[in-house]
Amino acid sequence: MSDAASILASRREQLVVLLTRRAVLGLLSFIVVAAAFGMCTWWYLAAGANAVVARDPVLFVTFLVLGCIMATLGIGLLRVLWSVAPMPDGVRLPPLAAGALHDKVGQMSAHFGGVGVDAVWITGDMNAAVIQRPRWGLVGRMQTHLLIGLPLAHSISPQQFSAVLAHEFGHLSLQRTGAASWARHIVAWWFRVSDGLVDQLPCTAAIIDRWTRADLVRAIELAHVDEFEADAAATRRVGVETVANTLLEVALKERFLFEDYWCKVLQQSMVRPRPLIRPYREMALGMSAGFRAPASAASVMSSLYDESSDCADPLHPTVWERLEALGMSVDCLETVSSDGDTVANRLLKPLLPSLSLVFDRAWWLGTRDKWIRSHRIALRSRRARGIAK
User: Fold this and answer.
1) Which pairs with CB-CB distance under 8 Å and at least 24 residues apart come from 10-18?
2) What are 351-389's pLDDT values in tens digits?
3) CA dihedral defined by 54, 59, 63, 66, rounded to 10 degrees?
4) How far is CA 230 from CA 179, 224, 256, 286, 322, in A?
5) What is the pLDDT of residues 224-266, one digit of tens each?
């Protein structure tokens, strides 16, 4: 185990160094180009002023146009460079509003040497994550945010939540402390700038792709190494079986939500102009009533191997790969929580109505137009078949 951990740590450090060097080089290159645009702008405008003195209108217009072009390019590049890391998209939970949850987080922080988080957020996603960003986006004290998805809270038991927290704090303690957090920030900044430049100037897509292709491959490998290393750290805290069971539980319930629950919610648009249920409010009931664990290890493996699943994330290792790295077999794992006691009921119960309302409103705002179009199409189809009166 120690040999495997040292190999992962060594490879992680190599990848971080390579990516950070490339990111610094790329950012400095763009800064130099932006400065060059600024100098050209100043020179052309100064030359235009001289043309006014010389009473040469053609030369004045030429220099003015060139100066405006340089200024536009320079300002556009500066806007791309000022690509601020976004704030988490969710509901921030102050300690007074969710004391039990913050106590749980604080206990896990103590087990990992006191590395802490600045804020805990509830999101509408089926995952948990830690993100770090400077206080003012690009500069300032590095702040750490813990994100916990409400669907995830409805899916796992408190014991499994300990495994999730141990995994996230494994990320923090091993990969995101001190200078390492700033290295990750610079790499993420570089990728945001690259994407922004392609969006602003599509003609640069081929050049940016050639320049960043190797970086993207390294970043994907680094993401895999990070996950394997955090899993190993979690096993040292809560045990390998708990981590493996949690991975399997989350994967199966995520698949249920994407391929069953949300599909049934959206199918209402075929017959109703507005949804009859609020999906986040009813998620706990839908999970307990609709989710059924696969009957055999073979069916579990079939689910995990299905690459066509909408919830598959190509930037992260598959659950099967993570289980293999832990040395666990699907046959010996539990595939469903036995007592039905979830994190949402244990740690968030007083807040569930308000949290569900927030996410249900956000979901409806994002889905309303698609829902209305789907309902109108279904209504016209029924009318054409003579079904609707």
Assistant:
1) 11/221, 11/225, 12/174, 12/175, 12/222, 12/225, 12/226, 12/229, 15/218, 15/221, 15/222, 15/225, 16/180, 16/183, 16/184, 16/187, 16/222, 18/218
2) 999 999 999 999 999 999 999 999 999 888 888 877 544
3) 180
4) 19, 10, 25, 31, 11
5) 999 999 999 999 999 999 999 999 889 889 989 998 999 999 9
